[in-house]
Known about the structure:
- By secondary structure, this protein is an alpha+beta fold.
- The protein has helices spanning 51-54, 104-109, 111-114, 179-191, 202-209, 226-249, 255-272, 279-314, 325-336, 340-349, 351-365, 378-401, 406-428, 430-433, 435-473, 479-506, and strands at residues 3-14, 31-46, 58-63, 69-75, 86-93, 120-135, 141-154, 164-173, 195-196.
- The radius of gyration is 28 Å and the shape is globular.
Amino acid sequence: MPDVIREIERKYDAAADTGLPDLHALPGVHTAAPTGPRTLSAVYWDTADLRLAAEGITLRRRTGGSDEGWHLKLPVATPQSTPGTTVRDEHHHPLGEEPAAPPEPLAALVRSRTRHRPLLPRLRLVQERTAVALFDVDGRPLAEVGLDRVHAARLPDDGTGTPADWTELEAELGEFGDLALLDAVDDALRAAGAHRSAARSKLHRALAETGTPAPEPADPPRPRTAGDVALRYVRRQVEALVRLDPQVRCDVHDSVHRMRVATRRLRSCFRTCDRLLDRAATDPLRDELKWLAAELGVDRDREVLTARLADGLSALPPQQLLGPVAERLDTFSAHRRTGSRARLGDVLDSDRYLGLLESLAALLDQPPFLERAVRAPERPFRRALARDFDRVAAHVGEALAADEGDERDRALHDARKAAKRLRYAAEAARPVLGAPAKEYAALVAELQQLLGDHQDSVLAREALLELAAEAAASGEPSFTYGVLHERERELARGYEARVPEAWRAVAPDGRCPLV
């Protein structure tokens, strides 16, 4: 994958005769080294309808300067984000020959946005840059403050666009800088007559000033009907899918799990809101989301199971470790590895997945509302919560009445799936029911986690029986697998013993408190 750096910067508008202020005396700065002037030329690529720019994404091929090459900048929401500060992950790729299209590794990272739409050169931006690089006493880079005199022209140059020129300042943190330094630079630049730029980026300003402004993402209206509330929840999960796609491709920690959760939330919402959204439209999407969740989840489930077995093994005293148990566990895990992580790129590039994203976007554009969707939201959502609650109650009751063994295990597993749906329904109802819905979702999440731990124990015991059989067939001792199996059985009994208390928290007086 392309190299990635975290970019944190602020931009400022400035008059044409503005110069760089003296920055030597800023706190923590030991050296302020001037560089330039340098000529930087970049061609920005986007779809015909500028869907990358609409989401604050830039894809460019730059020549000149020390970092020439392809740059893809994806917005990042982090705790460091403050008003006026842009935080983006910048993916780099070598310059290469003059291209007919952007490099595939970068094009793949924006495919959840572009889908089947081609990337085209949309803008050429040339800037004369003079800069000051700031270093600490150890020579470590703290920040760079640049003065750019910019010329922008629309592509293709068909005579309909209007070239634009302006001057701006840019302050970008280096590897060892912090936001306090950025604030000090801010004070110095404002004192020199600059002011924060209203544009989201050079690209946005260039598009606006050359006559092709980027579409601005519209905030969805405040939900007023039951359909509005359902659609708001769906929209957030679709946005999560699209946003997490490049993170999954880059193997960012926990991104596969979070993307899988978004698919589950969507599927659950479509089922919970089946009296608001036409199932003729949502059922095919539920099927496709189930397929995607399965593709995302195979290796993660294996990793969770392997980690649980390894933790159990590490907890045993040495005298109970008979035979090559750790080695057999490694082999067992390797044989279960499907290569789904290696295949995920193919899945995310497939027509099936891109078609799913297109269908979800179409649903948001033209929601398949049923008659009840136009009603005030409180009553429909309370009724939906009641149905989902009743489903959990039935499965929990079945589990508590069942004898220990397979029947109880199946009922608890069904209760876990139903609890997950109830939790997501409470999350979706939060705009309607407020803080009580948030608090209730947290209580249901605790029950869901307990039932999930129980199901993990069920799967671990199944795996241990398989491992024991393989070991015995190879003439190895199977004692340790039996010890681990009994350990998991005791853990399961402990989980089961806690279910009644967790259920009482979810169902005080045997009822859903939100209904």
